[in-house]
Design brief:
This protein is of the alpha/beta class and about 350 residues long. It folds into 2 domains: about 1-150, Rossmann fold (3-Layer(aba) Sandwich), CATH 3.40.50.2000; about 165-344, Rossmann fold (3-Layer(aba) Sandwich), CATH 3.40.50.2000. Helices cover about 35% and strands about 20% of the residues. It contains 13 helices and 12 strands. A 6-stranded parallel sheet has the order 3-2-1-4-5-6, with helices on both faces. α11 (about 265-275) links the parallel β10 and β11. α3 packs across α4 and α7 (about 195-205) runs parallel beside α13 (about 335-344). The chain starts with a strand and ends with a helix.
């Protein structure tokens, strides 16, 4: 029995993408392998319902384990797993230290990672998408993985709870709806409030679907303003505001039941792919070439190709460096509406 660990302590969206690795390990080895995940504290619900995963170990890198003592504590937790192999997806210094001292017989990571010289094997991080880059770690361990490279037509899988813990969501899931997740930690990734309002109005007039808005605490004001811009009381009655109300499990349940997800370059697009839900993603300061577009052939990325300053960074910025936000303002609501029409 092989005991294989996957370490990814980045953001929610990045962590969702390692589901492809989980699936491919199961496809090649079946019951001859046990999969152990080491992920950021607070994200464990992402895999709570995934029976392919033997155990989940968390690293509270922003809280109780952010100092040297905490790092040592994380290493001890990982060593107790007695892994045969550790795949280090994350390239940070702390992730590499945990991998190097994990006790695994074989440690595999990217050449570009900090302290990669401490790994048993390394591979250059290259490819058009993060899913394919991560798969190179598996290929480096066993060349047989080259025969089962991920395809956009056969999406990775995530597993939601069968029922939400919120009665309102269980009721919502019985009727067709579209999820709109307009927020982002990086404010330059946010499409315009008025543009979202016009889009929502068009969708409500075109489809019989309700619209469910979702986001975290920082997105509450944005979503309230989008909804307030809709003047028709009859249309507003078909909008459900779930901003700052959903944990990861309930977000997964919501997205898994949706007819479509509209979002930006952020986690909801990757979660939607895991449930084979069509996605429209709005890309402003980032581009598909960075490798984080939705890994699905049921997805459309809407972007302003003629804006020359794109991309301005891996994640975008809190404020536009040119103070124009042109990469987002150049995207008209008709562009996004037409993308939706292609999918549903």
């Amino acid at each position: 029995m092989r005991k294989l660990g996957i370490l990814q302590t980045a953001f929610l969206g990045d962590t969702a993408l390692i589901s492809s690795m989980v699936g491919k390990i199961g496809e090649l080895y079946g019951k001859d392998a046990e999969i152990y995940l080491i992920i950021k504290n607070g994200l464990e619900d992402l895999f709570k319902n995934d029976k392919r995963v033997r155990s989940i170990t968390t690293f509270d890198k922003r809280g109780t384990e952010k100092d040297l003592f905490g790092l040592l504590k994380a290493i001890i937790k990982v060593r107790r797993l007695k892994l045969d192999v550790m795949f280090c997806v994350h390239r940070s210094l702390r992730s590499c230290i945990i991998t190097a001292f994990s006790g695994a017989k074989t440690k595999i990571g990217f050449k570009e990672a900090a302290l990669s010289s401490l790994f048993t094997k390394t591979v250059k991080r290259e490819g058009p998408h993060e899913v394919l880059k991560n798969h190179l770690l598996l290929e480096t361990y066993d060349p047989a993985f080259k025969k089962i490279r991920p395809l956009m037509s056969s999406k990775y899988k995530l597993y939601a709870p069968a029922k939400s813990s919120l009665d309102e969501l269980n009721k919502t899931s019985k009727e067709p709806f579209i999820v709109i997740a307009p927020g982002s930690k990086w404010h330059t990734k946010r499409w315009g409030t008025e543009a979202y309002t016009r889009l929502a109005e068009k969708l409500l007039k075109t489809y019989n679907h309700d619209i469910v808005f979702t986001g975290d605490k920082d997105d509450e004001g944005l979503i309230e303003n989008i909804i307030a811009g809709i003047k028709s009381d009859n249309l507003r009655k078909r909008i459900i505001n779930q901003a700052n109300k959903l944990d990861i499990s309930n977000l997964m349940f919501l997205i898994s039941k949706a007819s479509l997800v509209i979002t930006n370059d952020s986690a909801p697009q990757h979660i939607a792919v895991g449930f084979a839900v069509p996605v429209v993603s709005i890309f402003g300061p980032t581009v598909k070439g960075l490798g984080y577009y939705p890994f699905s052939d049921d997805a459309v990325v809407v972007e302003a190709h003629d804006v020359k300053c794109r991309p301005c960074g891996l994640h975008g910025h809190m404020k536009c460096p040119k103070k124009t936000n042109e990469c987002m303002t150049a995207i008209k609501d008709d562009y996004v509406y037409n993308a939706v029409r292609r999918l549903i």
